[in-house]
Specification:
The complex is a heterodimer of chains A (about 500) and B (about 325). Chain A is α/β, with parallel strands linked by helices and about 500 residues long. Chain A is about 30% helix and about 25% strand. In chain A, strand 21 (about 470-475) and strand 22 (about 480-485) form a beta hairpin. In chain B, strand 2 and strand 3 form a beta hairpin. Classes of the chains: A alpha/beta (about 500), B mainly alpha (about 325).
Chain lengths: ~500, ~325
Amino acid sequence: MLEAASPLLEAGDISKAYPGVQALQKVSLRIMPGELLAVVGENGAGKSTLMKIIAGVERPDSGTLQWKGSPLSISGVQAAEKLGIVLIHQELNLACNLDLAASLFLGREKTWGGPLRLLRQDIYPEAEVLLKRVGLTLSPRTLVGSLSVGQQQLVEIARALALESRLLIMDEPTSSLTETETRTLYDVIAALKSQGVSIMYISHRLKEVEYLADRAVVLRDGRNSGELQRDQINPDALVKLMVGRELKERHRSTTVTSVLKPVLVARNIRWEASQPKEGISLTIHAGEIVGMAGLVGAGRTELAEVLFGIRPKLDGEVTLGGRSFQPRSPRHAIKGGIFLVPEDRRHQGLLLADSVRDNISLATLNLRQFLGIINRQEEKTLAREKVEQLRIRTPSISQTVGLLSGGNQQKAVLAKGLVKTPKVLILDEPTRGVDVGAKAEIYSIMQELANQGVAILMISSDLEEVLGVSDRVIVLHESRWAGELSGNELGEEAVMHLATGRTHPGRKAS
Amino acid sequence: MKKLLGLGMFLALLYAALLLADPSARTVRNHINLAKLIGHFGILCLAVTPVIITGGIDLSIGAVVGFCATTLAILLNDYHWNPHLAVATVLIMGAGIGILNGLLITKLGLQPFVVTLCGLFIYRGLSRWIADDKIKGLGGTDAFDWYKAVFHDGDLFGIPKFFVIFLVLAGGLAVILHLSVYGRYWLAIGANEQTAHYSGIRVDRYKILAYVFCSLLCAIFSVLYLTEYNSAAPSEAGNFFELYAIAGAVLGGVSLRGGEGNVLGVMMGTMILWILPNFTRMWGISDKLQYTVIGVALLIGAIVDEMLRQRQKIGAFLLAILRIVR
């Protein structure tokens, strides 16, 4: 639309690396005054990193930022907010024990002659006006903690309005909003645009992007993948740009699963009251690798937690090796032969300050003891064996596990689960933050285990990985069953269609 | 390991300084007194160690000691119970208190600090109530003489019996903590409860066990307390003991963050704690400053520990001090 005007913000060749990952590589974009620019990409495409750099949370390794045509170096969130760049986080940052007015003015309290003399009364009328602008008819004296997540999100946006922002960055703002709240948000966005405020909008919901965006920039693997103008934006075109890469190799040749024995059968599993009655069902056969795809928050981890006995299920049935099995606790699941390699290895998988040996033996100590006394010799032998088998690169088994690289840490968690070979191995994002070499090794370990008859369920947000490693792929969308793909149906576009909630791949969404 | 070495060196230095500076500290008599004190209070330091290792705390130790000692004295003197039965009752009572603490903390998810702080008030109040706030002595009975003869009177190869008991209990805890599955689970829970849970460890059960261990040792301590003092004052017996216990454990390198602790360290921490007051006497500092000396020692220990943890801070800290001095 505003072609003639000069850009409000221009980012050129932004690069940023984290240990083990190149998050952004020479990404460029510009945003005009009063424009809504959608930033679209798969999980891990670099959207959030880019937003953080623009909002001053992170610093780029290289590249330039220009604000209204002059070079810009943002040194922190405060500086960015002073310019009028405000990031509204996916997770809420409100202090729950404050009332609405206080949280709207947090950090910019009006004072009269020193910080001790807060002008408390002045902020309430102003707060009320701000809340009205985002469609909240609540008293400004309401405590933040008593609001729904959606309402809190709207308060965050009201806070951004109070900062008189020029550029609002919204990261998945509708992910926790109800229909009505979403509509209110759309109205607020329209009003902001008419006031000349620019908006950068990150979303997984392609229909929403089609509805809202003036322009869409697509990122893939940390690079610019393409740009679409208003009339070019539709879910098909977006998906094509999001995934449009060639598969380098199939990591696995498909085995015939029909002759294999089902090991884990889950029927109509539900863990939230809001899920549809039929819940989620899945079967994993011995020697099979089943991939589970979906966007962040699609309920994949939750399902794994239900199967592993961490999250209580509402209803549904599980059979393990032909027998009914009600997972009560991780201990119970491990005893039954299920092991979960959790998503967050630093907080759920490892004792970071302890040795490789202690970590590997932790889940199976009760098998290696006499009258409660640990058989240390056996423990050591076993740890050495696993270190060798999984090719964990560590100077010794007494090395502190937290000092190993991400890939080797991940292998240590895996080793813990393999001391006693499980019947079912669930891997949640097994290669997140893992370097390429270790990735390939983890794949080959999975392959070996499958060949030994272990049933493997792999949750992954890396489409290439899901397609390359799995025999079959199950896709979830918003805690619902979205579909299953196998054989010739497997393809990045097909998975993305299901994962973004478009049940008929290939047909254009209305 | 480095921590233990540092502690050992500090203890040796402290001890050497004491012997060099104060001739009266060199006597056998002083050593016996010291050993008795360390042995007696050391039991409480051992008691609280597993609790702290799992990331918890027990503030009810002193009150539980008082409650158990008062109860025991009443059962023996007023009700003329068989002493073994009375002691068994008190031990069961201790274990029961531990179970209650553990259940409240794990099943209801209350904070250990809050639960045991409430325990401190509850058990102190109960002991004053059952004794009608009167000192309960063993004057009217010789039923406890067997316990006194076995656990208190005389010595073993010149070593006070309390110290021997302390060594035995420390050895037992060392085996549990460093060689057995239980200790490994306690350490794992304290280091990262979620990882422990994901590894199939019954976190709740082992946490409860730690509190039971603690309160049971308090009950054992109260039996020894009665052999030593022959009476229990319901409003005073055990006052402040939880703080001595925690101080000894922390001085011995048990981290209040959980997941870290060593029995040898706790033993040395206890010794440091009870050698320190000798210096106040030696330097002619008022006895009234004893608590202050212990507090300052603990603070220095905490600072040194933190500095070892983050070496780069040492430089900054020293610079800051230099700036202030200048």
